[in-house]
Structure formats: structure tokens, C-alpha cells
């Protein structure tokens, strides 16, 4: 978290990256207007990055647009929700033996140009999972949102920070980089519905190292947020329940040999 | 007034329901999404059973004078109805998805055979 905010990738990120098998998982639900730009920006950041778009049962031209721009497209037969879609990508990465996976949303709110920051600690071996946070460091000013949503995000961050014993500011961020250990874990087990908060607690319980780095996020480029007002209440209750029940699960020791 | 034995039995049974649901979630045999209604059922019945004055008052509102625990049955019944209705919608969604999967599989199988 002490990483300085740099607009460009930290030195060495690209040279280290080049030796690795790397993929970008892009979950997309009705994002035909933004998906092409996201793919292009990912390519611009790193031409050797395999872009895997997981089309979560879109009813528009998302899959067609993604394929036309050279992405690998995994088309789900119906909408699984963000958790199921992202895990599809992790299973793909696990089976194809990728070393590094970055997760970037298909709506354009994550700026691939900032992947250098998110990848930095991972490539230096400082973390197994790195989360780009809207609120860490000085980047808080760049993010606008409804007040209730901010309160919810802060509340979750408080609960999760207590549990994992590490100060986290943005537990709902899907802008992440994950190494082989993380890919193996997520391919096997990943939370449903809105997965990020539970995933952080799960990562902690499996003793993987998680680090937050500051990023700036953009306004959503299109589509609309999958979290509406009524759903967010259900979401809060469900996530808090899942977190606390999850604390009583055994079988949280990291399994060797999954890599 | 509700007999004390009824209050105790009701509270214990409802609280057991809550514990069983939590254990089912813990052991991953029940997803949180489908557990919430059951938890609400268990918690509402636990409160109504243990809070004897409250049960009496509510029974009074509803015009139940002879036997207040009847309200427990009514509330329990309503929650069970809600759970059943919810499950009907879940089953409907699952069968729709199942049809879609079978159709996709048929198309896929044809493609695999042709290649």
C-alpha cells in the first residue's frame, strides 16, 4: 500500500511480464459499445496479453464485437452473474496454465493503462493478489458515486479490514491481478453473485498475500451498473452473512501442489 | 396468555432452525441466496416465541383472544408459503436454463461430430 502513485508502469514490469503467460479476464454483460475500446487499451498496454472476454449471457452484440477485435470469447449460455462469469475466466486460465491473470471490467471503468501499478507487486513477488483501490492513497478524489453506495463500500471495507487484520479501502474493486496460486484457488472456489468482498476474506483464510494499490477509475463507459438500490440491501445482508459464516469453515489451509 | 411450555418449545425449535440453516451454509450445502428466507423465518419465530408480551399484543390486534400461540402457526405458515413461492420461481428459472443447456448441447454435439 506504500507504493507511490505513478502514472506509468513501475520499472521492470514490462520486461518481467514478457517472460510470463498472461491473460486478461474481461467479464462483460451487454457491453457492446465499450468492449472494443477495452480490448484495444489492453493490447496497447501489453500486446502479448491474451484477452479473454467472458460474455455473461449478453443479449446485445458483445460477443460479436469482442471476437471481431481478436479477443478469445467465452460465451455463457445464460447470465450467471459476475461471480460465475469471472470464475469461468479463472478456470480457463487454470486449464491453459497461465502465470498471471488481470481482471478488467468490460464496461470501461478500469483503465488498462494503470495495469502497471496493479501488476507491480505481483511481479515482484510481494503479493499473490493485488487489488486496485479507488480510495487508497490520493486517488479518492477521482471517484464519484452515490452516498449510500459509498457508505456501503466503506462499511464493508471496515468489516473486512478487521477480519483480515490489514487495512483495506476498496473491497468491491474488480480491478485485480492474480498469480498462479490465486488462479488455482479461484478456479476451484469462487463466491457467487457479487464476489469481490467474499473473495478477499477467502484469500486471507487460504493465507494468500493480498495487497491494495491506488488506482483511478473512470466513469462507466456504457451499460448500467448491475447493482440497483434494492439489490444493494440484499447484497449487503448476503455478503455480511457469507463473511461471518465463512469464518467458521474449516479446510482453509492452503493446499500444496495445486500449482 | 401463552402457556410457558409453548413459549419455550417454540423458541427452542425456531432457534434450532436458525442453527441448522447456518450449519448448512457453513458446510456449503445451502447457498446464502436461498438461506436468507429460512433465516428470516427462524429469527421471526424465535422472537415471537420468546417475547411473550409481544405475541399477546399481536394476537390482540388480530382478534385472537382464546389462544395466542395460534399467531405463531399463522406466521410460520406465511413464511413457509413465502419460501415455497420463492422456490417455485427458482425451479422455473432452473428449468428454463436446463432447456437452454440441452439445446446448446445438441448444437454443439452436431458441430463436434461434423468437424
Record field, number of beta strands of chain A: 7
Major sheet strand order of chain A: 3-2-1-4-6-5-7
Q: Would you tell me the structural class of the helices and strands of chain B?
A: mainly alpha
**Number of separate domains of chain B:** 1
Total individual domains of chain A:
1
- Silhouette of chain B: elongated
Uncertain regions spanning at least 5 consecutive residues of chain A: 1-7
Ends apart, CA distance between termini of chain A: 27 Å
Largest sheet composition of chain B: none
Explain how this protein is built.
The complex is a heterodimer of chains A (259) and B (115). Chain A has 259 residues and is an alpha/beta fold. Helices cover 39% and strands 13% of the residues of chain A. A 7-stranded mixed sheet of chain A has the order 3-2-1-4-6-5-7, sandwiched between helices. In chain A, helix 4 (82-95) crosses helix 7 (180-188), helix 6 (147-164) runs parallel beside helix 9 and helix 8 (196-205) packs parallel to helix 9 (229-246). The relative contact order of chain A is 0.17. Chain B is mostly helical and 115 residues long. Chain B contains 4 helices and no strands. The longest helix of chain B has 45 residues, at 70-114. Chain B is elongated and about 75 Å long. The termini of chain B are far apart. The model of chain B has no long low-confidence stretch (mean pLDDT 94). Classes of the chains: A alpha/beta (259), B mainly alpha (115). At the A-B interface, helix 9 of A face helix 1, helix 2 and helix 4 of B.
Q: How would you briefly describe this protein structure?
A:
Chain A has 259 residues and is of the alpha/beta class.
Write the layout of secondary structure elements.
The complex is a heterodimer of chains A (259) and B (115).
Chain A: H1 13-18, E1 22-28, H2 35-45, E2 50-55, H3 62-68, E3 72-75, H4 82-95, E4 100-103, H5 115-123, E5 129-133, H6 147-164, E6 176-178, H7 180-188, H8 196-205, E7 210-214, H9 229-246
Parallel strand pairs in A: 1-2, 1-4, 2-3, 5-7
Antiparallel strand pairs in A: 4-6, 5-6
Helix pairs in contact in A: 4-7, 6-8, 6-9, 8-9
Chain B: H1 4-26, H2 32-50, H3 52-61, H4 70-114
Helix pairs in contact in B: 1-2, 2-4
